[in-house]
Amino acid sequence: MSNKTLIGINVGLIIAVIILFVLHFMGRHSIPEEVESDVVDIVQVEDTVESYLPEINTSEKTLPDFKRGLRIAFVNSDSVNNQYKYYEDVKEKLTAETQRAQASFQGKANAFQKKYNDFMKEINSNMITSQAEMDRRSGELGAEEQSLARKEQELSMKLQNSQIEAQTIVTKETSEYLNKIGSELGYDYVISYSEAVPVVLYANKELDITEYVINKLNEAYSAKLNEANAAKTE
C-alpha cells in the first residue's frame, strides 16, 4: 500500500470523526445528504468488521495453566526390554518354543526331501513304467509340499504372534506402572525413548527414571512369581 493511499485513508477517517462530532452537537438536519450518506457507509463498514470478532467466554476453563513449570521424565524402552525380568523369561520361553517348532518342521522337511529323492531315483532307473503311477506319486508329493509350505507359514505366524503378544503385555504393564509412578512422583509427562525408534532426539540424563521404573517392574513381577509359587505349594 502506497503512502498516498495511507494518507487518503487517514484523511477520510479524520473527516468522518469530525462529521460525527458535528452530528452529535448540531443535529443531522444541518449536514448535506451526500455527506450523511458517506458517514452511514463508514459506520456500516465498522459494524460489519466488528460483527466478525469472536466472543471470548472467560467462564470456560479450557486452556492449561502454564504459570508453573512442567515436570517431565523419560524412560528408555530398550533398557526396559533388556532388563525387565518378565520379558527375559518370555524371551527364553519363545526361544525354546521356536527351537522345538523348527526342529519338528525340519524333520518333516527332511522326510519329504527323502521321498522326493527316492521318487526321482525310481524314475531315472525306469522302475516306474506307468504314467498313471508317475502322476499319482507326483501328485502326492506336490500335495505334501504344499502342506509343508502352509505349516511353515502357520508356524512363522504363530511365533510372530507370540512375540507381539509378549511385547504388548510388556508395553501395557509398563504403561500402567508409569501412570502410577508418574502420578505418585508428580510428573506431567513420562516419555518413552528408544534408539530403534528415535522419536525423542535429545533427552537430559537428569530426567531419566528408567532404572527406577525397571526396579519397580521387577519388584512387582517377583511378587507375582512368589504368589504363584505359594499357591502351587498349598
Strand content: under 5%
Spans of at least 5 consecutive residues whose pLDDT stays below 50 are 20-32, 34-50
Q: Structurally, how many domains make up the residues?
A: 2
Task: Kindly report the spatial arrangement of strands forming the biggest sheet.
Answer: 1-2
SSE order, one letter for each helix or strand: HHEHHHEH
Instruction: Characterize the overall form.
Output: elongated
Q: Short description, anyone?
A:
The protein is mainly alpha-helical and 234 residues long. The chain is built from 6 helices and 2 strands.
Topology record:
Blueprint: H1 3-26, H2 33-51, E1 72-76, H3 77-83, H4 85-124, H5 131-185, E2 189-193, H6 210-233
Parallel strand pairs: 1-2
Helix pairs in contact: 3-6, 4-5
Can you describe this structure?
This protein is mainly alpha-helical and 234 residues long. It has 2 domains: 3-51, no CATH class; 72-233. Helix content is 72%, strand content 4%. The chain contains 6 helices and 2 strands, in the order ααβαααβα. The protein has helices at 3-26, 33-51, 77-83, 85-124, 131-185, 210-233, and strands at residues 72-76, 189-193. The protein has a two-stranded parallel ribbon. Helix 3 (77-83) runs parallel beside helix 6 and helix 4 (85-124) runs antiparallel to helix 5. The longest helix is centred in the last third of the chain and has 55 residues, at 131-185.
